[in-house]
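Incident log, structure service

09:12 report received: a user says their structure output differs between two submissions of the same chain.
09:20 pulled the input from the user's history:
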Amino acid sequence: MKKAILLSLWFAVCTLTANAQKFALIDMEYILKNIPAYAQANNQLNQASLQYQNEIEAKAKEAEALYKEYQKSSASLSASQKTQKEEEIVAKEREAAELRKKYFGPEGEMARKQETLITPIQDKIYEAVKQLSEQKGYAVVVDRGSAQSIIFASPNIDISNEVLAKLGYSN
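09:34 re-ran on a clean worker, output below:
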């Protein structure tokens, strides 16, 4: 009998504790779309990406041109000349691969640019969300875009506009 009472008391305490927690949602995509600095940073990243991609493609085309030239003249070349041409082609292909790694690798130029342009904006958003959650007592704030298992959430718990207001952007 005592176990049943203790168990039901424990269940009641757990239920009350669970109901006391407050949750909120944000839509990071919506927030970022309403921050002009993010759009500018994205434009800069896109322009840099196009520039880098063009450089890589130019190197690849040089290698391709060398290869086509080699194919046309391979019959009239000596073995040492063939080897030399093949090494030139491989060197150009390697240059293109090194450029790709330099620009788009995990520690490449694009990663560094993203770090300097996008991360400060994301950090400001995080700080605003953190301050709002501390002020309003939210136990959890979930990003609607990254929470794939949320099927429906009431618009009443979406604090995206409050985050924007906290950052100085009114919508």
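09:41 both user submissions now match this output. Likely a transient worker issue. Closing.
09:42 reviewer note: The radius of gyration is 29 Å. The helical segments are 2-20, 28-33, 36-73, 79-104, 109-117, 119-136, 160-167.
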